Amino acid sequence: MRFQKLWRFSSIALCCLALSIALFFSLQSPPSSAAQKPRTLAFTALQRRGSEVRNSLFTINANGAARRELTPKIDVSSTLVWSPNGQRLAFVSGDTDVYTVNADGSRLTKQLAGEFCKAPNFAIAWFSNSQKLVFARSCDGFTSDTPGIQSLYLSDTAGIKGTKLIRDLAVGGYPPKTEISSEFYLSPDGQQVAFVKDQNIYKMNADGSGMTKLTKSPGEYTNGGSKLVWSPDSTKIAFLFGTYPQQQIYTINADGTNLKNLTNNPKNQVYNVNLFWSQDSTRIAYYYNNPGDLSGQQQDIYAIDLNRGTSRNITHKPRKYDALSWSPDGKFIAFTADNLSEEKLYTINADGSNLTQLANPLKMSVIDELAWSYDSHKIAFTFQEIPGNKSSLYVINRAGSGLTKLTNNQDLNASNPVWQPN
Question: Does pLDDT of 294 surpass 70?
């Protein structure tokens, strides 16, 4: 009896030891790469098929595998936007229509059948539930004697019958119309729309309700090409204010409170400036032209910390910068620099340290449309060959390794890279 008890105790002890060893090694071993979902991005590519040339929509893995054409019979213009759950894409076709399609190419659905207009421009945003879609269409009236139209639509993505026209406002012309004096700017969550009317910034809900004047006095809120730029969390709007080009960077809360001048520098001379929010909505990066620089060749990149109220010069090397993009984790900024036809791709830490040139094997050319993967590990970009007009799509690791060409010889022009949300 004593021997049987001892034997049972020893067996139990050995089993516990074996389980402990297995658990230890399972915790120490990295997860299987087969279990990790591959990083995927969507893009458009112009292709010649017989006598026809058409821009089609594709998805592809970051390693160049699993390429899939989603729209073999539709010409895709621009404005690719993934739904938050990563299951569907919205896009513009023929500069007139809006479609949605599943990530596997199924359920291609027309959401809007528009008519041709001068200089069309679209903005698209998904609701956080990935079911509703809001989109704005601009028909230019800023450069013509004839007024243009700013149109706002809301769709439940069930098809054209599920799309509702929310607003149709005249803009521009001579004498200028006063219904609206800017485009519609959509919040990232699709819930709100900002615009300029009667020289003030207004906001309303995507369904047209709750129109509110955010600023309290008339001013130049879109002069010099300035835009209203929503923070990623949809709680703030950044914009340039003042007489062009001596403009200042401001923010205001989406409820009209807390108007702030972030730069407060009367010597600011702004030319062709865009404002770039960090993903956590706490910082804004922008290009600053040195005083007297009318060519845009003597710029520096600055970053404003909204919580601290401080501005930092990131680059300390005046030259021409472009295509600035924050990494989603907020630790890095990617950008291009130097002459238009001889651009180089760089990353830099958000504090201004560790400037790194990427894609060295590529000859200097036009590099554009930088897109970070959602885990901040990779950057996709388009590269235009000079001489020639062919544009290819590449992806590279943040540290500079793993340069991979994703397009092939049949792709005449690649554009609009957008990473699929995890």
Answer: no
